[in-house]
Amino acid sequence: MQEEQYFLTQTTLTSEEGESYIAFGIRAEKSSAAVEDISTRKDQVQAMVSFFNFRHLPPQRLTEAVEQMLALEILFDQ
Q: ∠ CA(22), CA(59), CA(23), 5° rounding?
């Protein structure tokens, strides 16, 4: 079985104040797994994509893995 590959996604969203911004997310190549609007920091999300591809993350764990990585970042930012 071939492993899943993950890719960076980019979406333009509008804030409540009416200002547009770009949010980055992750999607899987073969499955429907995706997490949108993770961060406005492209480098942060690209690092997750690289890590998930390196570790061969199963698509069913994508959402949980993103949440854990964001929690880890919050821990280090304190």
A: 5
78 has pLDDT over 80: no
3-state SS string over 13-56? Answer: EECCCCCEEEEEEEEECCCCCEEEEEECCHHHHHHHHHHHHHHC
8 A C-beta contact, residue 65 and residue 17: no
CA dist 4 → 50, 59, 71, 74 (Å): 12, 7, 24, 27
Q: What is the pLDDT of residues 35-60, one digit of tens each?
A: 999 999 999 999 999 999 999 999 99
